[in-house]
Amino acid sequence: MIKGTQFWNYRDCYYTQSNNPTEEILRKRSDGGWLVSCGPSVAVTCIAAMGFDVGISCPGKYEPQPEEVLMDFFNDPRNYPALKLARPDTPPDVWHGNEVPQFYPVAVPAVFGITASFQWNSELAKVIANLEVGRPVQLCLVKPGHYIAAVAYDDEKREIIFNDPWPGRFPDGNGFNRRMTEEEFKGNVKPFMIVYGV
User: Fold this and answer.
1) Given Cys at both, which of 4, 88, 126, 163 links 8, Cβ 3.0 to 4.6 Å?
2) Contact status, residue 147 vs residue 39, Cβ threshold 8 Å
3) How many Cβ atoms sit within 10 Å of the Cβ of residue 156?
4) Contact call for residues 109 and 116 (beta carbons, < 8 A)
């Protein structure tokens, strides 16, 4: 049986990292150092998979991408004092804020009104327990150093179902509802997680 977030199987709740304005600026101006918004894309995927509206409104017809607005929060100097409190040893005016996991529980409630919790432990049992009650988990892979959104768990196949914001890293070009075995989890997930809805 598969248990997970309310909309774990809805492709409309899946966001990628290669199509927002920040990535376009970096792509046009760099020597290949782009695709850095995996964290904000994963956070938005997690929030949408829980059934929350992540739409951003403007007075005109333009609809900003929600992952881009989260990225803006990390890079807005007005937010640096709050981010610095979350991790004093990592100055937000030097680091890409989207890369610092402790910053997400500060940014996500401010932008989307959804709670998030950073936890140093990403034991498989804890990840599964959160997924089984509908709470998505943002995980970071060791190789590549990259965020993914765990949205469900298949207890028959003993696999985590996740959405990867970088679909181009797979031969079939699909990052939606990928699967990770428990062995893969134990060998390639960093020892922290961000849980949404707690």
Assistant:
1) 4
2) yes
3) 7
4) yes
- Name beta bridge partners: 116: 196
Helix (H, G, I), strand (E, B) or coil at 186: helix
The whole-angstrom separation of Cα 176 and Cα 195 is: 19
Q: What is the mean pLDDT of the chain?
A: 95
The answer to whether the CB of 19 falls within 8 A of the CB of 66 is no
Bridge partners of 146, per DSSP, are 141
As a whole number of angstroms, the distance between CA 19 and CA 6 comes to 25
Contacts 24+ apart (CB under 8 A), 52-57: 52/112, 52/114, 54/112
Residue with tokens 């290669």: 18
Structure tokens at 77: 């100097």
Of 149, 165, 158, 152, the residue nearest 184 (C-alpha): 158
Backbone angles phi, psi at 146, to 5 degrees: -160, 135
DSSP letter for each residue of 75-92: T-GGGHHHHHHH-TTS-T
**Closest by CA position to 100, among listed 109, 110, 90, 108:** 90
Contact, 179 vs 160, CB < 8 A?
Answer: yes
Q: Which of 29-33, 83-87, 101-105 has the lowest mean pLDDT?
A: 29-33
pLDDT at 48 over 90: yes
With tokens 């409309």, the residue in question is: 12
Whose structure tokens read 């998979």?
A: 49
